[in-house]
Each structure stands twice: as C-alpha cells, then as structure tokens.
C-alpha cells in the first residue's frame, strides 16, 4: 500500500512539474483537429475515460498524424507491438503508421482511473485489440496499458503510454 501511495505521489509531482512547461509548439499546437477538445474544466473519471475513446476513434481514422496529435511533444510511448521506445513525434508517427495497417480497434476490459490533480490523471488496466489481417480475418491482442494524461494549453494530452501484451498464465 505504501509503495502505491509513493508511486501516486511521484506521478502527481511529475505531472504538476510537466504541466508547468507551457503550451506546445509546432504541429501539435494545431487546435483545428476535431479529435482534440480544449477544456478548462477539472477532470472527472468520466472525462478521463473519454480520452481513451478519443484515442481509439483516432486509431479508426487510419491517420498516424492524427493519432500523434493526441500525444504531448515530450511524450514517451512504450508500444504493444514494437520493442523500440518512442520519445518524439516522428517515432510515434512511425509506430502508428505500421500499427494502423492492421485497423486496430481497442476495447477496455478492466480499468482503474486516478485523477492526480486538476492537470494530471492516470488510466491503467487491460484492453483488447481486434486486428484485421490482410486476408480480412481478425485476430486479438490482449494487453496491459497505462496512459498518463496532462492538461497543457487547455488540451488533455498523453504524456506517457505503456502497452504490453498480457503474459500467459498468472
């Protein structure tokens, strides 16, 4: 229990420090993208849960740039089907260009949301991706996930995203 509390405190501190970096620049600063909603309202568990739905909808567009727009410029992505850590927009776009070829659709199976502050939250749990193969058949990938969200410049963005296949057994 103490370790969980320490982790939450560390994440909250990191989120508060990161949130103070200021507005994002470059392509991410584009506010015209419909998948991004600007807000100044305090987060609720429902609002944080909706951020996954926004991300999942972006996946369905098949547009890697649109998916990358949901990540902070200093985001870290530990993707499900790649061993390479992605630490910049180009790396995130590259990953999603390949991943989106399988037309992934995610579905949350179990989730835990922790609102850390007015500008930071964590959504973690289990999700299942349905992937479409070249022959039209589908397959599934069950994975564990963690999204760390921060509010920057009125936009909720993904600061850290870790996804890994669920290991066999318990």
Textual characterization of the structure:
The protein is an alpha+beta fold and 170 residues long. It has a single domain, classed as Nuclear Transport Factor 2, Chain: A, CATH 3.10.450.50. The chain has four helices and five strands. The chain has a five-stranded mixed sheet. The protein is globular. Residues 46-167 form the Calcium/calmodulin-dependent protein kinase II association-domain domain. This is SgcJ/EcaC family oxidoreductase. Residues 1-27 form the signal peptide. Keywords: Signal.
SSE topology:
Layout: H1 2-19, H2 45-61, H3 64-68, E1 71-78, H4 89-99, E2 105-117, E3 120-132, E4 138-152, E5 155-165
Parallel strand pairs: 1-5
Antiparallel strand pairs: 2-3, 3-4, 4-5
- CATH class, anyone? Alpha Beta
Order of helices and strands: HHHEHEEEE
Average pLDDT works out at: 83
Q: Describe the biggest sheet?
A: 5 strands, mixed
- The count of DSSP E runs of length 2 or more, i.e. the number of strands, is 5
Q: What is the spatial order of strands in the main beta sheet? A: 1-5-4-3-2
Q: Helix- and strand-based class?
A: alpha+beta
| CATH architecture verdict | Roll
CATH fold descriptor? Nuclear Transport Factor 2, Chain: A
Rg (C-alpha, Å): 16 Å
**Proportion of residues in β-strands:** 35-45%
Number of helices: 4
